[in-house]
Each structure stands twice: as C-alpha cells, then as structure tokens.
Amino acid sequence: MELWQQSLQQSVTTPQTLAERFAIDPAALEAVVARYPMRITPHYLSLIQEPGDPIWRQCVPDPAELDDEDSLVDPLAEEALSPVPGIVHRYPDRVLFLVSGTCATYCRFCTRKRKVGCPSMRVSFNDVLDGITYIQRTPQVRDVILSGGDPLMMSDLLIKDILERLRAIPHVEIIRIGTRVPVTLPERITENLCALLRRFHPLYVNTHFNHPTEITPESAEACRRLADAGVVLGNQTVLLRGVNDDPAVMTELLRGLLKIRVRPYYLHQMDLVRGTGHFRTGVATGIAILEALRGRVSGLAIPHYVIDLPGGKGKVPVSPDYVERVGQELLIRTPAGEQVRFPDTES
Ligand SMILES: *Cc1c(COP(=O)(O)O)cnc(C)c1O
Ligand code: SF4
Q1: What CATH class is the domain 3-343?
Q2: If you measure from the C-alpha of residue 270 to the centroid of ligand 1, how many angstroms do you get, rounded to a whole number?
C-alpha cells in the first residue's frame, strides 16, 4: 500500500475518534454523520488549531447541517443535465466527468453534499466507460473536466487508463482535473503520479484552497511537483462564512497561492445547497472583498467572483460597479475611490 493510502486509512471518520482528540460531544454529531459522511485526513486534522477555527469549520460536522431544509438538494440541476451517469453537460464545448465518488476529506460546504461519499455516488468502471463513450460520440466536447468526488482518489493505474482513453479521442483538446488533495492529502501528489500526468498535456489542475492555513510546506511541495511536471495550476475558492469572508484573510490566501505557483481562478458564491446554509454570506461580502483586492494586490491574484445560478443556468461573474455611463462619457471609479471621466467615442 502506498503512503497516501495509509494516510487515508488513518483518517478520522467517526465523531467518537474526534472526541478522543477534542472536547466535543460525539452524540451531537452522530446524526449528522449518518446523513453526510465525515472523513478528515491526518494532514488536514493537524491544521486545526482550536475547535471552531476555519479548518475545523470546513471539515467537522455541525448539527446546523440538519436544520437547513429550505435550500435545494441539487441546486445546479446537475441530474437534469446528465445524459449518462457521471457526465454533466451544461455548456456546449465542455463536460464535467464525475469519475470518483469519494474525497480525502469531506468538506461540510460541498456542492455535491447530497451524494459525495454516499453509496449513490459509487462510480463503477462501467459508468466511466459510458462517460467516455458519450464524449467520443459528442464531437463538440473539447474540454473534459475530471471531477467527483476527487479524481485523485483513484489509483495511478485507473487515472492512467482514463487519461489514455480520453487522449485517444481526437476532439478532446484539453483535460482538467479538479482536486482538493494538494490541500487535504498532499502526499497523494507523488513523483510517480506527476510522471504519469505529464504524458497527457495539455493538462490543467484546479485545486481548492480556502484559507491561508491550508498553504503548508506539504501542500506547497505537492503544487511544486505538479507545476514542475508542466501542469498549469488554478485554484477555486468558495466564499465561506467564518472561514475566508474577510478581505485580509482572502488577500493572504491569494498572495500565498501565487507564491506556490497556483493562479487564483474562481471565487464561488456558496451554492444554495441543502445542509450548507451556515456557510452562506451575502453577495455584498464578496463584492467588498473584490473591491479591497483591486489595485492592492497583483492582478494575477484576483479570481473571478462567480455565482452558479440555480437550475443549471450556468456561472455568471459578479463584479463591483466601477463604470457608469453618463451621456458620451464613462464615469469610472478608481480603486482609490476617485471619480474619473473617460470619453467613450469611436473614431
Ligand atoms: C463550472 C462548470 C464547468 C467549467 O466551467 P469553466 O467556466 O469553463 O471553468 C463546466 N461544466 C459544468 C457543469 C460546470 O459547472
Ligand atoms: S473535495 Fe470537493 S467534492 Fe470533495 S467534499 Fe470537498 S468540495 Fe466536495
């Protein structure tokens, strides 16, 4: 067994084990875990400094998950946009390909909370083959995003097999992998895995850091290995109450990501997912964070702030209003708050 597989086996999966380390009442969490599974890797657990801190909030079950019955189970209508199990086809040229049903650590705010880690998301090899057949038969698909669950929970052998099959399809131009293991299980990013991945370029990896504490020597090493294998690294962050809904925290996170060669890509407004209401902030919070970033941090560090609209209508960027039209002129607000007029004429 590989080291990362041993780490997975040593993960905390029950409130009882958590209670051996922290002063919590495990009984209060049992019902939560019965509905939404828990797993915390030794690495991610080691980042907790005290109960209730930003790492804790992301991975330790909270009874509030069960009091949120208003939101939607599948707000992005992924099931409706799924031509075969495992494929979500919302945009003409790209598909999400859900190849894994499990994750190294289950994030309490997960968009696919309804099924990650649950039997309903067990992905069989036949499901994977059906997904590949769908992509083969759908020539407008240029961009395949491996997701899940976490695709890097699969063995190297299976990853290689899927990548080989996808690369054999002439119209598949780029392959992306969405994974949180650089954060939660950095030992998964082995030299062997990187040697395998580098054979399948152009390959993009979008990882998922939400808080500066998650940037550790281990996660930096995982990103270094991927980047040295020629993988282009992006990051998706979810805006989370009590975790990163603060301009100073977000600034530290985004700057830290650039230092480990990861380019911020999206900042996601929380989806309206059942069981995650306690993480939701107002959109004004996200806009205020973007305003605080603009002009103060490297433009490379600034992600697109997006709302993924309910009903599968897609991601839409949200940005502060910098520009207002007044007659033939634009009235532009600078990052420093000044108003500047700019002529808007065509020659
Ligand atoms: C987010 C998403 C994509 C990828 O969108 P990009 O904006 O290209 O990163 C593709 N398909 C689905 C269903 C998505 O939710
Ligand atoms: S790693 Fe991604 S898919 Fe897995 S629980 Fe976290 S947010 Fe959900």
Answers
A1: alpha beta
A2: 15
